[in-house]
Amino acid sequence: MKLANRHACEGTVPRITIGQRVYRRADGSRYVSNTWTAQWSYEGKHHYEALQTRRKDAALRKAFSICERIRTGEVKPKKYTLSMAEMQEKYIDLKRGEGRAPKTVQKYEAGLLSLVTWSTTVGRRSATGFTASDFWRYNRWLAENGSSEKTRYDRLILIKQAFKWAHKQKLLAENPLVGVSLSEPAPTEQPCFTPDQVSILLREADPHEAGIYATMAYLGLRIGEVRELRWSDILFDAGEHGVVVIRRGGSAGTTKNRRVRRVPLNPALKPYLATVDRKFERVFTARPSPKHPAGGGPISERRLLLSLKRLCKRCGFDHPDQYKLHTFRHVFASMCARSNVAYKYALTWLGHSDSKILDIYYTMFDDVAGEAMQAIVYPIQPPSKPPSEGQ
């Protein structure tokens, strides 16, 4: 084996030389590897070991590690051959086995598949040779291909988790990203209905859909939670005005955070619920269809979203396509802020455990912020007496 840029490691016993391996292409030309390799002789035999690093200082440290290994009589280190595709497959299998929600697994799968695509494009299919420099090159590749800052952050965090797991499972000799840190991007500004817009939507909406919109606007529920809401979950006799128990709505058959929560029933919602037929177990159902000719099927999020966008356009809202079903959740959080609802209650009602997530939705209205600013008043002190003559 021929090495270029050879460097003898002083103080190593046996004497170890590091260098960069020279390869021969099919056309006879040669090229030099950008990673380091160690070479030494011991007990009459020549030995070589790929050090899997581009940094010379790291290669020198590994050379001394080889000496220590030889001194203690250890066998040659295990050869790691984990590819990016294998790591992706094993990590996704792990998440499925943990019972993660299907949407979460899909997100992880897409994120790691993106890394596999990049590694194939640049010819770095092996996870064993991945470095922190590769990590940032992948980040730049994502940016060049139009990924937002938030998407890049999510995927980079996922990659750090995957490499940490692979190292713990002894699929990699070391975790190349152990010293890499990321700064979380600022939350993306979300569209938010005003109170007047909600009033207009509930007035103009089809009666079949008005109850769904009102439930999201008055209780802050996700569309999945509204879809899976049962009449047995609405305790009209509990508390002063009733309580709604949120048990389902996530992709795993539970809530998103797998916790059951109780939300006080807003009395303004009761008139909308009174118009809903109770012949089905679900509170809200889809209209009759070939699959469900008598009705009772689950509501379609996609169809409801299209209907909402058409309604926003019909009501004359600016940029009607920006609004989503989740926007009702945003306005509910904003109304909590407008009404000075304590964070603890707002977090509980919305089903969040982290106040940073709630901050995304806490959009303060300009008029409320102005009123709050006017409340900041300092006492006015009488003018001080001028000093008397002679002082």
From TrEMBL:
Origin superkingdom: Bacteria
Keywords: DNA integration, DNA recombination, DNA-binding
Domain Core-binding (CB), chain residue ranges per copy: 82-167
Protein name as it appears in the record: Tyrosine-type recombinase/integrase
InterPro entries: CB, DNA_brk_join_enz, Integrase-like_cat_sf, Integrase_catalytic, Integrase_recombinase_N, Integrase_SAM-like_N, Tyrosine_recombinase_XerCD
Coiled coil: none
Organism: Natronomicrosphaera hydrolytica
Family: Belongs to the 'phage' integrase family.
SUPFAM superfamilies xref list: DNA breaking-rejoining enzymes
Annotated ranges, domain Tyr recombinase: 188-378
